[in-house]
Amino acid sequence: MIKRAPLELPPGTGRAFLRDMAAYFAADTELKRDEIAARQLHILRQHYTGKLRLMDIKEMFHQLRDEA
Fold first, then answer.
1. Cα–Cα distance list, 40 to 1, 2, 43, 59 (Å)
2. What is the pLDDT of residues 28-60, one digit of tens each?
3. pLDDT above 90 as % of the chain
């Protein structure tokens, strides 16, 4: 198993992720959820050099839902 260094995000990026996560679960259509997840995908790709997909962002939202 390869150990990766933790992803360091600027505080504003982390807060935006939490805001978008709340908006994702409040969205009433799948299209709106996809738009929110796509916005976060674009933002996180600026800080992460690995492969990220839209489904990865949605999975992160679901995994972190009870943590925030």
1. 27, 25, 5, 12
2. 999 999 999 999 999 999 888 889 999 999 999
3. 63
Calculated CA dihedral for residues 63, 54, 46, 3, nearest 10 degrees: 50
Residue that is written with structure tokens 């492969």 in the block: 51
Q: How far apart are CA 23 and CA 65, in angstroms?
A: 11
User: Which H, E and C letters describe 42-60, residue by residue?
Assistant: HHHHCCCCCCCCHHHHHHH
Six-digit token pair at 16?
């935006």
